[in-house]
Design a protein that fits this description.
Elements: H1 6-11, H2 14-22, H3 28-35, H4 43-59, H5 77-82, H6 90-112, H7 118-123, H8 132-140, H9 153-183, E1 186-194, E2 197-203, E3 212-217, E4 223-228, H10 229-260, H11 264-289, E5 296-297, E6 303-309, H12 312-321, E7 328-333, E8 338-342, H13 349-364, E9 376-377, E10 382-386, H14 399-413, E11 418-422, H15 431-447, E12 451-455, H16 459-467, E13 471-478, E14 485-491, H17 499-505, H18 510-519, H19 522-603, H20 606-622, H21 629-668, E15 679-682, E16 689-695, E17 698-702, E18 707-711, E19 715-719
Parallel strand pairs: 5-9, 8-12, 8-13, 10-11, 11-12
Antiparallel strand pairs: 1-2, 2-4, 3-4, 6-7, 13-14, 15-16, 15-19, 16-17, 17-18
Length: 725
Amino acid sequence: MAGIPKKTLEDLEYFDVLTHCSSFAITSLGKESCLSLLPKTDVKQVIGDLQAVYEYRSSFDNENRIPNHGFEDLSAVFPLLKIENSVLEISAFRVISGNTETTNNLIQFLTKFKAYYPSLFIITEGLHVEKIIKKNVDSVIDRFGEVRDNASESLLIIRKQIQQLRGKLSSSFNKSLSQYQSAGYLDDIRESVIDNRRVLAVKAMHRRKVKGSIMGSSKTGSIVFIEPEVTNVQSRELQNLQFEESEEIKKILSQLTDFFRPYLPYLEIQQVFLLNMDVVFAKARYAQEINALLPIINQELQQIDYKKAYHPLLLQSHRLEDKITYPQDIFLNSKKRIVVISGPNAGGKSITLKTMGLLQLMLQTGMLIPVHERSNAFLFEQILTDIGDNQSIENHLSTYSYRLKNMKYFLRKCNAKTLFLIDEFGTGSDPELGGALAEVMLEDFYERKAFGLITTHYSNLKVLANELPAMVNANMQFDNKTLEPVFKLIMGEAGSSFTFEVAQKNGLPFNLINRAKKKIERSKVRFDATIAKLQKERSQMIKTGQSLKEKESKAALEGERMEEMNLKIKNKLISYQELFDHNQRMIVLGNKINDIAERFFQNNKKRPLIAELLKAIETENSKRKRKTATLAKKENDKKKKTEKNVQNELIKVRKDKKKTNNKSKIIQSPKILLKVGDRVRMFDGRSIGSIDIIEKNKAFVNYGTFTTQISLDLLEFVELEKKRK
């Protein structure tokens, strides 16, 4: 963090972001680690961290969900493993086993889905699936946290002896209980337990009649608790066996601890891995919360292009208050390195600065940022800020003195890999003198090729930004009528301060505003008015440009549609022409064959017939080109398709004509009932015939040379039967 001072982190509210992020960690160690995160300047390391978070974030939306990474802290156990003859507690062994099982599951999963999560797989470096640890722990400790009977042969023997002795002890006590109960020496409660031993509740008056050791008495003294003499010996023997059991357990745990000592380096790496997974998870969940993603990072391009960038803290607080949060578009590159933002107060200038700075800090901490997916980013070695009322009470410095001290630090540190963010640049002193000093400092930052955003009201800085090629003016857009902020950064022009307009809107007397205007230079008023006018014109031009773009896109779409339609019509015409030519050729050939058939009918000579037929076929074939089977098939398919299209068009035309005729008939006159002898024709035909017979809504129409059967619905009345006239 050599290039990013703590003041920058405080100015940009970086630690508040860490607090939000840490709330998503599932372990206390993970929360602490999140709160201690700091931005990095190592490009390779930052990109690796970002890629890992991006992969974990994407796992929330697919089927390959990453297994649970929950673990318990072993930091207190590691020093004990370094001490010779130390013995770990049973709970420590259970944590070691649980953490190892979690690690094994994660390693197996990330190895299997290495293609999906390559950066997360890299975090497993130095680890492997370790089955011996869990196996050894499970062989000694059961799932209830007790040392198993078969952990050693000695322990098994001791526990069997304890079990047998407890049986004898219970039997002996029950015998004494029965004996003294029948004698009437015992109280109603009969027995109790003191120091894990069963004792008889003897009435005080009979205490000398019961043989045994007095273990205590009731508060009133009416009951004396006595352990029977017969069980007293057995209790001491049981205590001896329990001591032997505890010593054997210590021996077993000591051996298990010695087994784990060589595994200390592995266990330390394992905990670092699990901690990293928890931090990456917390970052991914925070990214999901603020809808953040990974922008394109290109160090060679040296470009920051944040589209629809949100301030994460503002976004979250506004979401809770159900308010709208306005995104910002921020652009910097090697040709436009410094942006001078001007305009009235409360327009969002400082928020733009803070959004830019905080997103840059988050990105260099390995956190995804809430921007559009097509955004570009660049990583800086230094990020310097001067935001807010920086008054140093401890050092007895005024705001301006403190800011000058800050500028001195900036001048010493600025280079081509520095991002500086300065709010209200040059304020705190005489406007003319402070403005001049601010101008030369800005020129120095410019010559050092540093990148930066500044906000100012000074006209000379706006002019400077207009003169230097790698510096650009910008303003926060305002509604010219209501003077309400729109929270949109407009690059390319300076912003008016709207000083008098804002004063008038807030109810300041009009005569005071006029007197103020007279007290300042006329050129200054004209300059500010010109800027305000330019802003209004630009706003109007943006609206006009958007309207023209919409019209242009509509015209382009219409042009494409017309071009496509023309192409279809042209293809149809070509197909129809080909079909017409083919049909004409068939008609000519048919006429030839008809003439040959007529001559054969007249003379009935076969030889001339065959000769003429062969000649006609040879003539026809001479016009044709040799075609491959594939080409012939394609042409045949094309021909069939064309014929089908023509047929469909004809059917459509006939249907349309029929509908038109039907409509005209309905409008013009009522339908005439057709009878035998009436002269009729089909709706889409020209030939006229007379009806001979009508049967079941069908008519037999005589056309002279032939008779055909047609539905009455398809016939059109032409003329009445002569006798009906």
